[in-house]
Amino acid sequence: MAFWLDLMFGNPIGLLSMIVIFCTLGIISYLTWMFIVKSAPVK
Questions:
Q1: 1: number of CA atoms within 13 Å, CB side?
Q2: For residue 1, what is the enclosing H or E element?
Q3: For 9-35, what is the HEC assignment?
Q4: Are residues 7 and 14 in contact, defined by beta-carbon separation less than 8 angstroms?
Q5: C-beta neighbour count of 17 within 10 angstroms
Q6: Would the pTM of this model clear 0.70, i.e. be above it?
Q7: For this UniProt entry, which segments traverse the membrane (predicted)?
């Protein structure tokens, strides 16, 4: 576990890759949420 934490957050490349992964997940979840909201039937 310590090896993976050091690999991800110990150098700038690992930190940048984790930021990219989290931003990608955030964008995907936002687009999914928007799709669900816009696909809901109008009341």
A1: 0
A2: none
A3: HCCHHHHHHHHHHHHHHHHHHHHHHHH
A4: yes
A5: 13
A6: no
A7: 12-37
